[in-house]
């Protein structure tokens, strides 16, 4: 069975469906099969910064029922980089050593960090500088972590966006309108491309392919000329205006966030055609709710593989999904290769083959 271990697990960055399923899988395998102790660290690295470190003992009993549950029972944050931590007086301070001290104070043998590329980069630096044995698990609805075909949360987000398109079809057809759905994804167009094809969109706009409003309007007109009185457009939040500017809005804490390109498109389309437009911004609905079966499989497989890596003493790696296999890759490699949509990707060709307008 090997030596007894005490491991920590934390979720970092934006939440998504499937995080709790990973926590459950780690506990089932580490406690159930290896008889280790598992400590859940609260609110990402913030829990290790606090004194005493904020943790909860995880057991098969208290993680029962987590398979389908959205969010993360541990809490998370996508703010508060420990290397430039925002202080109440408005300054920033490097508090990274407090996190390493928290890890060692808890006498952890290893840490499982579930995060996107930003979180994994921070966790890796903390691990390198603070002597932390780290295993990474990729999660993000954006699906932009290099070295893995799928990250946890992506499939559920695609399902939700697809369902939204399915619903929009009926109301679009009833009112003869152009319905625009704005989806998340940051700089990567994976959600829009996948949901757009699955949900029968007529126009898919993603940041990786530049577009012209005239091409979008031509597609809408062609459909009208054939008696198809409505059109469905899906657009990624990081698609720029035609002149190349990102559309953002100010949020709390003085931070600007992506959002608003759907409205921009609606105005442009109604200005350059006679179509009546309406906009739906799907927002955080894409991150919530019950995880899809595929995300549960991925989360369960990643959780089990991460525990196995620790049992065999392999660290500084991220578990990844490639060709329906779990593999391990150096975290450095995974975060160095950002995974945007490749304009030559099979799904791009599929979209073109279906006559979907990609704006170019
Ligand atoms: O990275 C995940 C993501 O949901 C992006 O798709 C989106 O741009 C961003 O996070 C939203 O962040 P927040 O939850 O801080 O509004």
From TrEMBL:
It is found in: Cytoplasm. Mg(2+) binds at residue 117. Signal peptide: none annotated. Gene3D superfamilies: 3.40.50.450, Phosphofructokinase domain. GO terms for molecular function: 6-phosphofructokinase activity; AMP binding; ATP binding; diphosphate-fructose-6-phosphate 1-phosphotransferase activity; fructose-6-phosphate binding; identical protein binding; metal ion binding; monosaccharide binding. The record marks 118 as: Important for substrate specificity. Its cofactor is Mg(2+). Homodimer or homotetramer. Catalyzes the phosphorylation of D-fructose 6-phosphate to fructose 1,6-bisphosphate by ATP, the first committing step of glycolysis. Belongs to the phosphofructokinase type A (PFKA) family. Mixed-substrate PFK group III subfamily. This is ATP-dependent 6-phosphofructokinase. It comes from Zarconia navalis LEGE 11467.
